[in-house]
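Exercise: predict the fold of this chain.
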Amino acid sequence: KPGYLLEDEHAFKSAKCRSKSNAIAIHCYGEYPVDADNIKNITYISENDHDNNCGSLETKWFPYEGKKERQDVYQAPYIWVQFNEVKPNVLINVMCRIFGGNINFDRKSSRALTRFQIYIKDIPKNISSSKIGEI
């Protein structure tokens, strides 16, 4: 269900997500303050949209009712998250959470969220491009 729960209002507004009548919002951020300091800018690419604050999944995908016929094609919903400015040579903990009017977020039980880590290796500037594959 689009929107957010009352207890999530501050987080939703802090994320600067746009409310949509037909979509639920996804927001990713550094899980800890040091992680947030190492991520400067994120682009979200959704099925019909792109945004610099939040991604969105259209509600038409839920609930998934399975393929009716063998020849039916199912396209899973997606959000691509592009980290545009990440500090290199640092392991960064990322948390992405979902906002929905009927979705209870709980960090301890990992409900309505996913976590992952990213590490971008900095390539020294004085190495020729032909040697990059050998690093």
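Check your answer against the key: The mean pLDDT is 87.
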